[in-house]
Design brief:
The structure is a single chain. The protein has two domains: 8-34 and 292-391, Aspartate Aminotransferase, domain 1; 39-282, Type I PLP-dependent aspartate aminotransferase-like (Major domain) (Aspartate Aminotransferase, domain 2). The protein has a seven-stranded mixed β-sheet, with helices on both faces. Strands 9-10-13-12 form a four-stranded antiparallel β-sheet, with helices on one face. Helix 7 links the parallel strand 5 (157-163) and strand 6 (188-192). It is 36% helix and 13% strand. The radius of gyration is 22 Å and the shape is globular. The protein has 14 helices and 13 strands. Bound molecules: pyridoxal-5'-phosphate.
């Protein structure tokens, strides 16, 4: 694997202040903040300070959809088709609340490689509404045999929630095959695209999914509090979320005592939107669109391959797919004392994370240099051999 010194995407580095002081390999968790967010947050405060309550009519009330419009092109969706919500867990609950699980078709098929928060919603909320769960298990903790998922889907299946890219290993699922089987059986596919939008090309039409959820926090560099929802228009018309609120009403300001769902995408909103988060989300997706997801993907394949090559050269275990076509933007690397090594990397301003059963997750993005990738793996070896990892002890806290 050759190192690239003439990478045109590196012109974007100056737009991300944190890159001046750290090696930022954590875009799978929290994408770097674009410089423009300082201005956006100021704009938010200025609007509140000077326009007061008029800000709602000026722009705030529509932001759940207008911010969605900046994300729609990255999904192959039309303007006006994407809504913004605070997080995916809530979105999953809203979606579950649209379906009836009292009859024979009451099964939800998903895998044990989904993001746990989503599984908690199915385990607690969906089951309380009568759903039965069929959880498909990964055999190696990295991938999921598509055949096993296909076999689990039948005419009793109501919903198939799947991640496009698995959060632990970055394994890319065969979404089209799963959609085909689900549709043959009359089931609905909810695609969690948190780890695909912004790092690999996504097109809701080509994938054929019914519903897509994702978030701006990671690969879209949009900060916390910005999750998004797209629903195929024909399905959208049929769904009636019972987790709802006044923002989903056809005439919210009439304050009618009975619900009448709005006829557009706002039907899936609930209470007052978190406006500051929507301001923060305005910069990142636009940058990603300008850089171009195809360019980002090509560079990501190059750098994740470089990580794998370096990790293997140092004798570390790679817990992500070795085949680039099946690998998203992250490489999970396991080595002795991986948790403690990850804490020492953070102390040295090399930003990564650690996930149980996966190892240290390394996630380069379009702003990462090849040098950063190679020197991080070298630093991992150095921390291990020097014993510097001993400064850190393993503890489970509520923070990381
Ligand atoms: C695949 C996936 N889905 C969802 C989430 C986040 O869910 P929430 O927005 O509810 O925090 C993550 C976060 O890491 C994730 O990796």
């Amino acid at each position: 694997m050759t190192m690239r010194s003439d990478d045109p995407l590196l012109v974007w580095r100056k737009e991300f202040p944190i890159l001046e002081k750290t090696t930022y390999l954590i875009s799978n968790s929290l994408g770097a903040m674009p410089r423009g967010v300082y201005d956006r947050m100021h704009e938010y405060a200025e609007t509140w300070a000077t326009r007061g309550v008029r800000a709602w009519a000026d722009s705030w009330w529509d932001m759940s959809v207008t911010v969605g419009d900046t994300i729609a092109p990255l999904l192959g969706a039309k303007p006006g088709a994407v809504t913004m919500h605070p997080n995916i867990s809530l979105l999953q609950a809203i979606l579950i609340s649209c379906f009836d699980f009292t009859g024979r078709r009451n099964r939800i098929v998903y895998s044990d490689m989904e993001f746990p928060s989503v599984m908690y919603v199915y385990e607690k909320f969906a089951r309380s509404r009568g759903a039965t769960l069929n959880v498909v298990h990964s055999e190696d903790g990295i991938s999921l045999p598509t055949g096993k998922i296909l076999d689990a889907i039948d005419e009793r299946t109501r919903i198939v929630p799947i991640s496009h890219v698995l959060f632990k290993s970055a394994y890319i699922q065969d979404v089209r095959a799963i959609v085909r089987k689900a549709h043959e059986c009359g089931a609905v596919v909810i695609l969690d695209a948190y780890h695909s939008v912004g790092i690999i090309p996504v097109d809701v039409q080509k994938l054929g999914v019914d519903i897509l959820v994702g978030g701006v926090l990671k690969w879209l560099c949009g900060g916390p509090g910005g999750a998004f929802l797209w629903i195929r228009p024909s399905l959208r018309k049929q769904l009636k979320p019972t987790i709802t609120g006044w923002c989903a009403h056809e005439r919210p300001f009439a304050f009618e005592t009975e619900m009448q769902y709005s006829t557009d995408v706002t039907k899936f909103l609930n209470g007052t939107p978190a406006i500051p988060a929507l301001y923060a989300a305005l910069e990142g997706p636009g940058i990603i669109a300008q850089v171009g997801v195809r360019n980002i993907r090509a560079k990501s394949i190059h750098q994740t391959s470089l990580i794998i090559e370096e990790a293997q050269r140092h004798g570390f275990t790679v817990n992500s797919p070795l085949v680039s076509g099946r690998r998203g933007g992250t490489v999970s690397v396991m080595l002795p004392h991986a948790y403690e090594v990850s804490r020492e990397l953070l102390a040295r301003d090399i930003l990564v994370d650690f996930r149980e059963g996966a190892g240290i997750r390394l996630a380069p993005h379009f702003y990462t240099t090849d040098d950063e990738v190679v020197s991080t793996i070298g630093e991992m070896r150095n921390i291990l051999e020097s014993g510097a990892y001993r400064k850190h002890s393993r503890k489970h806290s509520r923070v990381t």
